[in-house]
Amino acid sequence: MFGALDNHVCSYSDDEVFGTVYHQVALASFSRTLVSMLEDHGSMPATASDAASTLAVRMQPEGAPPMRSLPQATPGAVEPVVQIPYQELRDLTPSAVEKLHKAFVGERAYGAVAITGIPNYAELKHDAFRAGVDLALLDDEGRKRSAAVNNTYPGWSGTPGSETHPLQNSFLFNVKEELGGQMDPFFGKNIFPSEDYRKTWVKFVDVMYANALQVLRGCDKVLDTEIQQWQAQRSLERLGDDGPALAGRFICYDSGFTREDKLLELRDGVSPLNSNASSIAELPQSSHGHEEPSEMSVKTVGHAGDGLASMRTHATPVKTAGHAGDGLASMRTHATPVKTAGHAGDGLASMRTHATPVKTAGHAGDGMATMQTPSAPVKTSSSGYNPLELSSSLAGSLSSQGSDDAVPVSQPETDYWLPWHVDSNFVTILHKEMYASESTGEFISEPPGSGLMFMNEVGETTMLDCSDPNTMLLQMGAFAQIYTGGKLKACRHAVLNPVKPGVARFNYCNFWYVPWDTLCTAPEGMEATAVNQGWNAMMDESYLNITMKQSFTAFRQFMVSPEARVQFSDSQRFKELSAILPIVRKQGDAGAPTMPNIQVDLLTDVRCPFSFISQMNLQNAIQNLGLQDNVVVRYHPVFLNPNVPKEGESLDDYLWREFGYTKEYAHSEDYPLRRYGREAGVEMNPHRRVVNTFDAFCLIEAAQEEGVQHELVQTLSRWYFEEAKDISDVAVLRAAALHVGLDAERALQRSSELQGTVQERYEEFSAMLGEVPHFLLREQASGNGLELGGLRSVEAWEQVLQQVMERGQFMGMTIDGPHGQKVRVDRANPFTPVSHALPAQHGWTPTAWPYQEEDFSRMDERPDDLMYSEPRLAEHLDLSSLQTLTETYEAIFQACPDGFSVLDLCSSWNSHYPNMDRASKVAVHGLNAVELEMNEVATERHIQDLNLDQKLPWADNSFDVATLALSIQYLTKPREVFAELQRVLKPGGMAVVAFSHRSFIEKAVRLWASEPDDGEGHAHVVCRYFQHGPENGWEKIKTMDVSPRHGDPVWIVTAVKPM
Q: Is the pTM of this model over 0.85?
């Protein structure tokens, strides 16, 4: 797995999908997205230029201009990768154990070993690779038959016909399922294009697995000499053999796919190191010894702390790769424009606020910032440009992440298929790559200088020097290093790309996972040595104390997200602003809107001219796109200067004092702001005063409560900029309130009451923003969008709005509803692990009930009515999540006939239902009479403890829909309850089970409480309840994630009673 997140590019690959599982779960709550974890803990440079330039040697195709050399270091006496003959390993001779010690123990160990001379290995490998290449190039139907639900689940990762290139995809299967015959529901069921394909690969992996286990046995012997009573406490062999998943991925990459990595130049600026890599030229030595550069922290050049879980190259550019349905899902193509970051002095005319400690880029009373021009009659200035002279390209450009204009940034030629990293799983099994013609698929010889490059702790690098085709490699991962307290070293490695165009690279890797509930912990007393330190750490303490399943879950959640597929990653500020400014759902007609609804939150000062002009351009863009009924704008205070005196100040005096602009220049027709305003339909009045806008914003806040905030802002802005009215004057504010239809006196009274709120909001926003205007645009259903600042043209705003709408298209699912109806759930995210949970089973269900009685034990076994003896009038999720649940119910109820009946099982004072006027019966069921009496939608109520008595009091075939929200985790007899639920539903009736990550943990059954944040795992549990309660009693089971972008997760499983 490779990631590059620098506010511009988000790049990921199948190459190490299962080798670089994210380990940030221990440092962040499970409700946060992995993207948030990446940026919360990341400390990597924002752009590739922040690191030193890459050293490289590349092949020079005949007739081509000279190319750079491959990454290398000073040649000298360094140890090669350890090789062990197959026979020695099989017998585990003392020599073999000694070689394993050398391969994995000590600062000069590479954490890898090569097993040579494996009988028939080359032939088995060739046959398997041939099958993989033929599938990629020749078998469209086979790829369709074996299509994966996502590239983190078994199957072919691309979509025939829409792949960037068939040789830029992968095929994944669980080796353990094939060798042991047991499917792991969490990993997903294997799916193959044909039985012959499956058999070919199984022959190969059988040999790989047997040899890998023997390496682990030998390493256990090594550890017996290093750690007292090692095998009495732990065992690598047992850990590996007990693991449920060995992710076998056949990887295809075309020649155009390359990445950049600059670790070696950093290294060579740190210490004199050696290498015996082939095709090596001498590099200059450094005199710094092994010190870390003082200006760089471990996390800057390491990783894991940045959430990339072994991918050091946080800002690594990617050259070519595309991203459609090919499973690579996030690789930018070479031609993809990358947006720039930063905003000072860019000509965007963002106005700095009073708190900004840069006077020359200040905030001039009219928003001129440092708007000096050599041609203007101004005081002497060191400024050599006129920020007001915005070029049409700048004023009309677009930023996708920061506050700046977007400009294409060329991506440099790069040297790596895979940058330097440590696999974060347990162990990786692989071998030397194979190469083939992209056009014919015929295998070709290995290009010189290609393949794996290894690095040890002291920074020495080498490449595998082995000509034996019957060779297998085994690399320790970060989990194994930590599990052994650092005694065994994880393998630092990279994959070089020296090939000429038209040559594709192939490899097959087995990424080994231990039992999912195994904690990543070091032996007692060895925690300090378990994790790498220093300039090439490639991991940190965030790897510790989380389970393998938590790690893999976090990785999968990120890889299946829309962000990974469409190459966008929200900036940290986008996430922070989105959390502060929740989306207010736009109410409209039932059903899916014809156009996406967009919420625009504008953080600004009402006297900022750039803000007003940009607003006018935004409104014109909205009109041009026909979005008048689909966009709502809200306004929030960020004052340019909250300390402007009550009487204000003449704008002419202010401009002369602060910026040296003469009155004649500021009043002239050539004054840039007047030109920009005129283009937007605004006549900027030069006679206005610099005023304090605090009271104006208090009135704006009051107008929001009455639904006329936008109208009031437009009125005040027009009056201020065109008529030069004093919008700090209470008489003007009273007139503005009347103008938009408010009760003026009541509005002014309310605005006085809101002064504290406005002050708090200003302080909150001003701590985050240094200039205005700043826009946060989000598609309402998905929460996806952009945050950006500055003055933008109509054309630029049209591009922005289109991008926001595009980001919202990754939402919505259609499921089977009641009585044969289809239900469209607009808030559902079809890409998340929960939504994939059932499809990834490919029809598999356990033949027998998979749980034991102890799985339904609880920490608190006292009667439940004791806990519910007093009413609990509380909400169990945040408001945005409850709103999403209500909207989901509404979509389902709309598919019901008039007069439908609903049962809310395990209910309380609030069923979270929408308006129920069309329903004839709403029966609520729970444990507390007071709560049920307060339920406003209920037409009948029933008190019952389902853990004591599962028999429901209603007749067969009574209800059209039954819901069970946020209580499934407390049922100790779920099969019996689900059987009763099925009985009381009408044929074709629908059951809806909603759950989240919150619970009274002492009352939750052990099956649930052991992994309270495991949405995908719990979705499997609920599916089992349906599948066995009763057997064949339910059909059309669906798993669905309707979680809001910011809030508690909301996961749903639905099923239908057969007609």
A: no
